[in-house]
Write a structure and sequence with these properties.
There is one protein chain. This protein is an alpha+beta fold and 99 residues long. The chain has 2 domains: 32 residues; 67 residues, no CATH class. Helix content is 47%, strand content 15%. It has a two-stranded parallel sheet. Strand 1, helix 2 and strand 2 form a beta-alpha-beta unit. The protein is flat, with a radius of gyration of 21 Å. It starts with a helix and ends with a helix.
Length: 99
């Protein structure tokens, strides 16, 4: 009996996971652009940070591709005012944040 309940719980969990995944994908679809020409101009761009290098000095491709995308946006004049690269949230902001 326990195995049947456990199996049912797993089915419910994975079913909810699929439903959530579908919902997020359908909601986000209108905000994802594959063609830079279709991308609307914005005042600000935020590039999420990551480490520049991984093991033994190899370039981290997540870093490389994010920077390359930022350069393409800049050259295509899709960002008009500000570019921010968020590498790390300073500790003083975290420590002084009001709860």
């Amino acid at each position: 009996m326990e195995n049947i309940l456990h199996f049912g719980s797993l089915n419910f969990f994975f079913g909810m996971l699929l439903i959530n995944s579908y919902y997020i994908e359908s909601f986000a679809k209108k905000y994802i652009y594959c063609d830079i020409e279709k991308l609307p101009k914005k005042d600000t761009a935020l590039i999420l940070g990551t480490t520049k290098y991984i093991d033994k000095g190899k370039v981290n491709y997540f870093y490389k591709y994010r920077i390359d995308a930022g350069v393409k946006l800049f050259k295509a004049k899709k960002v008009t005012l500000n570019f921010y690269y968020l590498e790390q949230i300073p500790q003083n902001i975290i420590m002084n944040r009001k709860q």
